[in-house]
Specification:
Length: 307
């Protein structure tokens, strides 16, 4: 999406200037993975308009491959506007009828997907349209593209589900149970399924071999066949804006997985990536260099002084 945001804390209606950036859950993850030193590609659709060209230019500059992105001559690029409200951020989505909503039902660029080690999708895409929901069912439930590890971030955005014909809770649970890796916030699991404790969330998701439950500034708990249950507390941070922190955490965790690091290091790298996002108003943060991050991934390192 194109992202518009006021340059300061003033309300949207009082601002005479808006900054133009790029955002979107899956593209945020791809960009943060590139910032952590990994090859990544984003598959999506943009309009044949200035916003679409800006999205492609920004992602390319961030090191994300966009060769397989489709340009729609008839539908516009999706738009997301941030509104500062009382120290928080209120989102306004303009995505109905967007180019991205026409994704699916068949997976795009299947050869590229088959060659990937990880394919990452989120519940935000599922909220966009019926064809997008069929696309995620095809990828996760039907395993239309065998081979890569399938990562799913629940990423529930209630505002996007208001006109959906099926309840978000039911579909997001179905998709989560079908994935190889599930990332979910404790708060969104409580809102969607009435399940608040990490152990209960793990039990609800059933046979998914990897589950990561994020609990805001408390920490994250993972459940994996190799390491069992692992908890890593979140490092302290002075929050500028929380938008994009979950995507950055997913990128950090996936980077640790791709590097075959121990489970605690994957969670630590997720926290450090999220910390970078929490200290900026950009949806895609600038990742600290790896020589600053990697020394803090070992279990005997000083976690309280992590950058």
């Amino acid at each position: 999406m194109a992202v518009l945001t006021p340059p300061g804390p003033e309300p949207l209606h009082a601002s005479s200037t808006l900054n133009l950036r790029t955002g979107g859950a899956e593209s945020n993850v791809a960009a943060s993975l590139a910032g952590l030193g990994h090859r990544s590609a984003w598959l999506g659709r943009v309009g044949d308009d200035p916003f679409g060209r800006r999205v492609l230019a920004d992602l390319t500059a961030l090191g994300v491959a966009t060769d397989a992105v489709e340009t729609d001559p008839a539908r516009p690029t999706g738009l997301y506007v941030k509104e500062p409200v009382g120290g928080a951020t209120r989102p306004h989505y303009y995505r109905a009828g967007s180019a991205a909503s026409a994704l699916g039902p068949e997976p795009p660029a299947p050869d590229l997907l088959r060659a990937a080690r990880v394919v990452h999708v989120t519940g935000i895409t599922a909220a966009l349209s019926g064809s997008c929901r069929r696309l995620l069912r095809s990828l996760l439930v039907e395993r239309a593209v065998p081979g890569p590890l399938l990562s799913f971030d629940v990423n529930h955005r209630a505002a996007l589900w208001r006109d959906a014909p099926e309840p978000a809770a039911d579909l997001l649970l179905e998709l989560a149970r079908a994935a190889d890796l599930v990332l979910v916030g404790r708060d969104e699991a409580a809102a969607l399924w009435g399940t608040e404790q990490p152990d209960d969330i793990r039990a609800l998701l059933g046979a998914a071999p990897r589950v990561v439950v994020k609990d805001a500034d408390i920490g994250a708990t993972s459940y994996t066949p190799e390491a069992g249950t692992v908890f890593v507390p979140a490092p302290r941070v002075d929050v500028v804006e929380p938008v994009g922190a979950g995507d950055a955490f997913a990128a950090g965790y996936l980077a640790g997985l791709l590097e075959n690091r121990p489970e605690s290091a994957r969670l630590r790298l997720g926290h450090l990536a999220a910390r970078a996002a929490l200290t900026t108003t950009d949806d895609v943060p600038r990742m600290p260099p790896r020589h600053r991050l990697d020394p803090h991934l070992a279990p005997d390192s000083s976690w309280s002084t992590a950058p």
